[in-house]
Design goal:
- The chain is 39% helix and 4% strand.
- It has 95 residues and is mainly α.
- It has a two-stranded antiparallel ribbon with strand order 1-2.
- A hairpin with a 2-residue loop joins strand 1 and strand 2.
- The mean pLDDT is 89.
Length: 95
Amino acid sequence: MSLKLADVHRIALLARIEITDAQAQESADQLNDILAMIERISRVDTTDVAPMSHPLDGVQRLRPDAVTEQPDRERTMVNAPEQQDGLFLVPRVVE
């Protein structure tokens, strides 16, 4: 697939971007290079390759998901402009 100058102008129009012919030509060249790389990658045979979440078998070090402090309702409600029965009151949005 190859993008023409008219395609780039159409994309720019849809994105509401003003673009000159020189910029459109440069963008078309860059986009065509990207599309060529995608075509090359899609031709690679991956039938015997198992899916993996990380190419280097990396593992994220995560801290345990544990509660470290209890919420203090009284301290939190000090900042509420309006409250009732320990709950924040907000203006009605939908009528």
